[in-house]
Every structure is written in structure tokens, then in C-alpha cells.
């Protein structure tokens, strides 16, 4: 079978590319349905983009690489498409846009766009050997027990990363990249809960609080969640993408900076109460109990000197913890790293070492923050490759 363009992976990036790559497109996926990660994303409502998406929200060895595609196919372009299909949406927080009804609306929209473009979709299709004969790619695809040699002038790899293997993530993109002479950077789980080898937070599992978390990158101010195995919640997930094994993280439990002044005032009006009682007005009770043990917080507020209060506030604003690991690809929302952008064109996503070969979406070394950025990268990179084909 001969097609102009074969796309491997019917996820967000692959479907977007299929809708924009012109005629003669075949999209293959081993899953039983397209866009499975879209379906489960955002708690079933898909955080499909972010109003404030820009290059600064992405992690890559080359922070400039994502600029061209993000600038040419923006969050506003995707929003126009969503609006054209009459999909109701709302901004949840921090520019994050979600469907009002269901993530399935986004999948249906992408399927309709692909059909309009005349793209064929093969599901439950296993990709076997991939070769290039000097002019075309030849890819063995097995579907329903029948193997077909598909020849294609263009091969687009949109097979995602390694996150959530039970949903079909395989890392195929990295193998194809290596086969055609492209480098692949170190990869690791991102947007992932962090774990601790001791049972440190077990007693307060389920407690949430608000704070900033930094782990070698920017500090993220959002919710934190204490779990049986460690720490989760948006602030932790965001920071986890900058965390390296062995590093410590820094949590600021009083990010608005008003605690010190407030404690001094309270010392005058209610100095006979325990420091922990006062802290419990700012932080969850169970967390205060744990902090009291870890930071030896004792005594009444009235007995604390200015220096002691300053020291306490400094401790609460710089709570340093050393995670032993992360929950890994099993629960990570994304894979950090991937196909080295040095081997790709930033305007077309085409490989420099092999004509007709493209890499888009999560398999590329471009990873977004939590909040709709990763889908925006899938739309922008998929669109950029589609335009170039
Ligand atoms: P994606 O992983 O979507 O697609 C790859 C496709 O390739 C899959 O369909 C897979 O079956 C197929 N494939 C893989 N190997 C293959 C092989 N060997 N042969 C054939 N097919 C193969 N992002 C965001 O912006 N907003 C959000 O709300 C969320 N929420 C979210 C929740 C959860 C639970 C997860 C795990 C992830 C998110 N994300 C997110 C991240 C987002 O889902 C992710 O970045 C994009 O889906 C990446 O799109 P891709 O198309 O690159 O890969």
C-alpha cells in the first residue's frame, strides 16, 4: 500500500497533524481508540490549552526550539477551532481552559477535522520494521492478523512518551530517532508525585495546603497534597519536572509573607496560646502537628522573642525535604526529554538527517508545565509538521 504520509500515533499531535497534512494520509495506532490520553485528561474534561502559553512554560535543552511552532499555531488558533465546533469551555484557574462537558468533545472535533482532510485511521495496528530505501519509508503494519507493507514519502512519528505504559505508551519514537541517526536526550518522568522512603507523611495523608514549591527551577504557588507515599498536588507536580534524583525541594508554607507580622500582633493580643494553636489558623491542624515535631515548635506565643519568631517563619518559608524518588512513569503525566531538538527543524519538525521524517508532540524534547501547555505543544508541533508536508 502506498500513501503520501504515514503518521504513527493517533494521539493529540498525530491527529492534529493528520488534519493539516493534506491528502494521502494514513494514521496508525495500536490502541483501540484515538486520543486516549485526551479522553482521560483534566479529570475527563481536558485542559486543552492555556491562555498564557508561551515558550517560558516549556522545558527543553534548547528553550528556543518551541518558539516558532507556538508562535505560528497559538492557543488562540486552537480556541478558534474549539469555538467553531461549538464546544463549551471555561477557564478554571491560571489561564487553564477546560471543556464544560467532556474531553470526548475534543476527540470528536479532531476526528471530524481528520475526516474533512480525508485521512485514513487504522486502529489496533501494530508497527513493525521501519526501513527507508532512499526515496520512501517502508513500514510493516499488522492489523487484524494481516501484515501490510506501507510505503510513504513522509513518516511522522507522534507516538508520545513513556508515561502511563498501561495506556499504550511505548517509547517507539526514541527507537525510530536512534535508527535514523538522531540523538535522544536523557528521559525521565515529569509532572509526577514525589516519594519518600520513610513514612513521614503517612499520618497526615490526604491533607492539603497551599504553598510554593521549588526544585531547582521556578517556584510554583499552588496546592500541595500529602500522600501515604509522599507529596503530590499541582505545586509538587510542577516542581517535579525540575527535580533531579538526590536533590532536595524547598517548600514555602506561608508564601504571602504576612505570617511574621501576624504572629507579632497575636503575641500581644493572645500571647498565652500555644504557637501551634496560632499556626493552625494558617495551616491545617494535622500539618501543624507534624511541623511541631519536625521543627520542635513548642511553648506559648507570648514567650517567643522577635528572633525566635523570625527563625520560625524562616523555617516555614524554607522547609527543605529530600524526596527519595518519584512515582515514575506509572503515574507521570509526561516524559521529560526525548528526541534531541538539535536534530530537528524548529519550523517544520523535520529531521535534519533524514528527508521526510518528522517528530511531533511529547516524543520531542519539549515538555510543558501542568495546565494545558502539553496539549498546546501537541497542537502547535502537529500543525507545523502538517503545514510542511
Ligand atoms: P499521546 O501519548 O497523546 O499519543 C501517542 C499515541 O501513540 C497513542 O495513541 C499511543 O497509543 C500511540 N502509540 C505509542 N506507541 C505506539 C506504537 N508502538 N505503535 C502504534 N501506536 C503507538 N496535558 C495537557 O495539556 N492538559 C491536560 O489536561 C493533561 N492531562 C493529562 C492527564 C494524564 C493522566 C496524562 C497521562 C497526561 C495528561 N496531559 C495533559 C499530557 C498530555 O496527555 C500529553 O502531553 C499529550 O497527550 C501528548 O500528545 P502526543 O500526541 O504527543 O502523545
UniProtKB/TrEMBL annotation:
Protein name: NAD(P)/FAD-dependent oxidoreductase
Keyword Magnesium: no
Domain (RsdA/BaiN/AoA(So)-like insert): residue spans on this chain: 188-334
Species of origin: Yoonia rhodophyticola
Signal peptide: 1-21
A matching Pfam family: HI0933_like
Domain RsdA/BaiN/AoA(So)-like Rossmann fold-like: 4-387
UniProt cofactor(s): FAD
Keywords, alphabetical: FAD, Flavoprotein, Signal
Taxonomic placement: Bacteria, Pseudomonadati, Pseudomonadota, Alphaproteobacteria, Rhodobacterales
Matches recorded under InterPro entries: BaiN-like (IPR004792), BaiN-like_dom_sf (IPR023166), FAD/NAD-bd_sf (IPR036188), RsdA/BaiN/AoA(So)-like_dom (IPR055178), RsdA/BaiN/AoA(So)_Rossmann (IPR057661)
Amino acid at each position: 500500500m502506498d500513501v503520501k504520509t504515514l503518521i504513527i500515533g493517533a494521539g493529540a499531535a498525530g491527529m492534529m497533524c493528520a488534519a493539516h497534512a493534506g491528502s494521502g494520509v494514513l494514521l496508525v495506532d495500536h490502541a483501540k481508540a484515538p486520543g486516549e490520553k485526551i479522553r482521560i485528561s483534566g479529570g475527563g474534561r481536558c485542559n486543552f490549552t492555556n491562555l498564557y502559553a508561551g515558550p517560558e512554560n516549556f522545558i527543553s535543552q534548547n528553550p528556543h526550539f518551541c518558539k516558532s511552532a507556538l508562535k505560528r499555531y497559538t492557543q488562540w488558533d486552537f480556541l478558534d477551532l474549539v469555538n467553531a465546533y461549538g464546544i463549551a469551555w471555561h477557564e478554571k484557574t491560571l489561564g487553564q481552559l477546560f471543556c464544560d462537558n467532556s474531553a470526548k468533545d475534543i476527540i470528536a472535533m479532531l476526528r471530524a477535522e481528520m475526516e474533512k482532510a480525508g485521512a485514513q485511521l487504522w486502529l489496533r495496528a501494530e508497527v513493525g520494521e521501519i526501513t527507508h530505501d532512499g526515496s520512501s519509508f517502508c513500514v510493516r503494519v499488522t492489523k487484524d492478523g494481516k501484515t501490510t507493507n506501507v510505503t510513504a514519502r513522509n513518516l511522522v512519528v507522534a507516538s508520545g512518551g513513556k508515561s502511563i505504559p498501561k495506556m499504550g505508551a511505548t517509547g517507539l519514537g526514541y527507537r525510530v530517532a536512534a535508527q535514523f541517526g538522531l540523538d535522544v536526550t536523557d528521559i525521565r518522568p515529569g509532572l509526577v508525585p514525589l516519594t519518600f522512603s520513610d513514612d513521614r507523611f503517612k499520618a497526615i495523608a490526604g491533607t492539603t495546603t497551599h504553598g510554593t514549591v521549588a526544585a531547582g527551577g521556578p517556584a510554583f504557588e499552588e496546592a500541595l497534597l500529602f500522600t501515604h507515599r509522599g507529596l503530590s498536588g499541582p505545586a509538587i507536580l510542577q516542581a517535579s519536572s525540575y527535580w533531579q534524583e538526590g536533590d532536595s525541594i524547598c517548600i514555602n508554607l506561608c508564601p504571602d509573607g504576612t505570617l511574621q507580622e501576624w504572629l507579632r500582633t497575636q503575641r500581644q493580643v493572645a500571647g498565652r496560646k500555644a504557637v501551634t494553636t496560632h499556626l493552625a489558623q494558617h495551616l491545617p491542624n494535622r500539618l501543624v502537628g507534624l511541623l511541631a515535631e519536625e521543627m520542635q515548635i513548642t511553648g506559648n506565643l507570648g514567650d517567643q522573642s522577635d528572633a525566635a519568631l523570625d527563625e520560625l517563619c524562616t523555617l516555614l518559608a524554607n522547609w527543605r525535604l529530600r524526596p527519595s524518588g518519584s512515582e515514575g512513569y506509572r503515574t507521570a503525566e509526561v516524559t521529560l526529554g526525548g528526541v534531541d531538538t538539535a536534530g530537528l527543524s524548529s519550523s517544520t519538525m523535520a529531521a535534519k538527517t533524514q528527508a521526510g521524517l518528522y517528530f511531533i508532540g511529547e516524543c520531542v524534547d519539549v515538555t510543558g508545565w501542568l495546565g494545558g501547555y502539553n496539549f498546546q505543544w501537541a497542537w502547535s508541533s502537529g500543525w507545523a509538521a502538517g503545514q510542511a508536508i
